Amino acid sequence: MIHRLSVLSCGLLAIGLVCACAVSEATRQERAERLARLKENISTGLAERKFQIDVSQAHPQGRGRTIHLTSSYSVRVSGDTIVSYLPFFGRAYSVPYGGGQGLNFTGRIVSYESGVTRKGEHVITMGVESSEDVYVYTVSLFDNGSASVGVQPRQRSYIYFTGNYHEE
Question: 73: buried, middle or exposed (CB in 10 Å: 19+, 13-18, 0-12)?
Answer without folding.
Answer: buried
